[in-house]
Amino acid sequence: MMNETISTSTSTSTSTSTSTSTTSNAAADADVCRLMDAWVEAVRAKDVEASVSHYTSDAVIFGLAPPLSIRGQDREGAEGWYATFEGPITYEVRDLSITSSEDVAFCHGLVRIAGARTSGEATDIWVRTTMGMRKVDGAWRITHEHQSTPFYMDGSERAAVDLKP
């Protein structure tokens, strides 16, 4: 195994931070970075079709919003979530770590979600994300997504949305 750092700052990418690779498959790592960049760009643009196109039809998604899990490309969920933002979404991926082989990969990192909401409120939170990917017909696709926010263990069950990296 070799450790290397891959910059993800090409295009509008996952931010100016770098991703760390813990694999010897540099080509797969670069492909996964491109997938993440394209997906993040689609989320920022609130482009439903582009964002869901990166998922397999049988993807398992554990998102921030109910229900507990979703299977497949969640067009309805993306549409509903994007509609709650006035203008573009700030979606910044930080400290992305990628582990990959020739046809399977996973990555994890922190994500900042910010923007003006249609309710007049502003959102600016950090969440944790883990994604699993698989190469399908020569293209990398997201097969699993898990996003979460910690909660305070003081009995209040409040989401710890005030945490910053």
From TrEMBL:
Signal peptide: none annotated. Residues 1-24 are annotated as: Disordered. InterPro entries: NTF2-like_dom_sf (IPR032710), SnoaL-like (IPR037401). Residues 7-24 have a biased composition (Low complexity). Gene3D superfamilies: 3.10.450.50. It comes from the Bacteria. Residues 34-151 form the SnoaL-like domain. It holds the Pfam family SnoaL_3. This is SnoaL-like domain-containing protein.
